[in-house]
Design a protein that fits this description.
Elements: H1 2-25, E1 27-43, E2 50-61, E3 65-76, E4 86-94, E5 102-114, E6 120-132, E7 139-148, E8 154-165
């Protein structure tokens, strides 16, 4: 009987240590920085219906480190003015792409107004769907608030949010 109690107590202590260390190893990475990049557009088969957007940003955020965000989204003219207007996908690559550390997101965006420069203004929310490498199991979201010069394809703005990761 004492052996069963001893085993039960040891099991309870072990589980407590495992659960506490897992919670301690969970980390929240804040994303607060500026972004700059460019995008290009390709028309739908019927250009009167819309176009596809492909682009990339770079940022040197102090807590996350340097990263590049690649994105694609269809812009269907039938949905302009109807939030969220566009839905797309992006891949955030942190550091060297060869090491496999990346975060995949689903993004929703809209064009609420124009920037002071007359450029197009976009606010996009990215929800993290999955991560790879040291970001495996990542969750969280971030928002990009940016201006786009539609003629040149140059875009810049800010990025903010959080990534929740589990330690290894």
């Amino acid at each position: 009987m004492n052996n069963i109690k001893r085993i039960s107590l040891m099991t309870a202590i072990f589980l407590t240590i495992v659960l506490v260390s897992s919670a301690v190893e969970a980390g929240v990475i804040r994303i607060n920085g500026t972004i700059a990049g460019s995008e290009s557009d390709a028309p739908f088969p019927d250009p009167a219906e819309g176009f596809y957007v492909n682009g990339s940003f770079t940022s040197t955020d102090t807590q996350l480190g340097p990263f590049t965000l690649f994105y694609s989204a269809p812009v269907d003219f039938a949905f302009l003015g109807t939030p969220p207007e566009t839905a797309g996908a992006s891949r955030l690559v942190v550091g060297d792409a060869a090491n496999g550390d990346s975060i995949l997101t689903c993004d929703l965006g809209n064009n609420p107004c124009s920037c002071a420069t007359g450029d197009l203004h976009f606010v996009e929310t990215n929800n993290i769907v999955v991560g790879t490498g040291r970001y495996a199991g990542a969750r969280g979201s971030f928002t990009m608030d940016r201006c786009l010069n539609f003629v040149t394809g140059e875009t810049s703005g800010t990025i903010s949010g959080t990534i929740v990761v589990r330690g290894r």
